[in-house]
């Protein structure tokens, strides 16, 4: 365990399971105070994990943790998240991790408008709304960190011919929302740089097999296509404490760690994790 983020006030969305839960645990191990946000407080009907379970792991480090239940696809439900988090933590939000995402895979020729709207609400409007809400206090303090989690699918596919194997033939709309998030991140970084706010995205080098991803695409992936949770989380930690001029970057987790000479630790921050890929 460390004190790298000692006393920092952090919001992590989508923290009931998966990458969000891992991020919350690792940041708690580094001394952060947390507000964790998701829809599942106690139990999900089909997936393991809940806010209360994540909070319990974080509190084992002595962290102050607030759980906040919100449907982030609903603009009214998310409107008060930053203010409620600041009130609960006794000060403004210093680090915002926009991890929550909707990933509905379906070919575009049958992709319904309702699902398209939901994806844009969660993957584009939500992170921008939360960032806008957090910005004024960050700017007043002269510093702040916003990390948006993206996806390698945002990179346009090579071709023709096109490889539509695995999920490649069904993740087009999800990829489009992540591409938009990347560009919004760069715009926020440019507009807010002179106020001390760093805004970056980070995406996994390979798939991180969270509970949800395992259900949907785990059977389609080889072991060398699966990135460790610990490596992805370590890259988020690095971006949660980066210097003012490290902003506007679309980072790839393992490439960031290699470039900066950072070895991934376990989620408790107590020992090195053996490598970036699960083999």
- Give me the CATH architecture, please: 3-Layer(aba) Sandwich
Total number of domains: 1
Arrangement of strands in the largest sheet: 3-2-1-4-5-6-9
Corresponding CATH superfamily: NAD(P)-binding Rossmann-like Domain
Mean pLDDT, nearest integer?
A: 93
User: CATH topology, anyone?
Assistant: Rossmann fold
Strand fraction: 5-15%
What sequence of helices (H) and strands (E) makes up the elements?
Answer: EHEHEHHEHEHEEHEHEH
Helix content: 25-40%
Overall, the morphology is globular
Tell me about this structure.
With 279 residues, the chain is α/β, with parallel strands linked by helices. The protein has one domain: Rossmann fold (3-Layer(aba) Sandwich). The protein contains nine helices and nine strands. A seven-stranded parallel β-sheet has the order 3-2-1-4-5-6-9, with helices on both faces. Strands 7-8 form a two-stranded parallel ribbon. α6 links the parallel β5 and β6. About 4% of the residues have low confidence.
